[in-house]
Design goal:
By secondary structure, the protein is mainly beta. It has one domain. The chain contains no helices and two strands. A two-stranded antiparallel ribbon has the order 1-2.
Amino acid sequence: MGQVVLEQQINSSTLNINLAHQPKGIYLVKINSEKESVAQKVVLE
């Protein structure tokens, strides 16, 4: 649906994201830094 469900700034190299409270579906996780941008598809079943 194109909605942002979580947005946060981090200051470390490791981040755990808890999507347990989100409905089943396909999510796109995007990580942006000064040097690069990475996107990864996550499927919750």
